[in-house]
Amino acid sequence: HKNVKAFMTHGGLLSTQEALAHKVPMVGFPLFGDQYTNIQSFANKKIAVALDLGTLSTDKIVDALNAVLKDPTY
């Protein structure tokens, strides 16, 4: 949808492809498998911010969302 400004995702292939196709930056919290590689690859390209579920906090989520919403490089 045109009003989507950011996408929070586990980093699965299909959902990340959809975000890429619509140029929506992501906040990723991978759970298993290829999700870690997918999210890290996008984070390296400044398409996403990668979060670690083991150290996740409200502040980290807010910081990640602010990064992708306010930094025009995303």
Give the overall silhouette: globular
CA-based gyration radius: 11 Å
Mind describing the biggest β-sheet? 3 strands, parallel
Separation of the first and last Cα atoms: 18 Å
Number of domains: 1
Helix-strand topology string: EHEHEH
Report what the structure shows.
It is globular and about 30 Å long. The mean pLDDT is 96. It has 3 helices and 3 strands. It has one domain: 3-Layer(aba) Sandwich (Rossmann fold). With 74 residues, the protein is α/β, with parallel strands linked by helices. 43% of the residues lie in helices and 12% in strands.
Features:
single chain; 74 residues; alpha/beta; Rossmann fold; three-stranded parallel β-sheet; 3 strands; globular; UDP-glycosyltransferase activity; UDP-glucuronosyltransferase; UDP-glycosyltransferase; transferase; UDP_glucos_trans
Question: What topology does this entry show?
Answer:
Blueprint: E1 7-9, H1 13-21, E2 26-28, H2 35-44, E3 48-50, H3 58-70
Parallel strand pairs: 1-2, 2-3
Question: What's this model, at a glance?
Answer:
With 74 residues, the protein is an alpha/beta fold. It has three helices and three strands, in the order E-H-E-H-E-H.
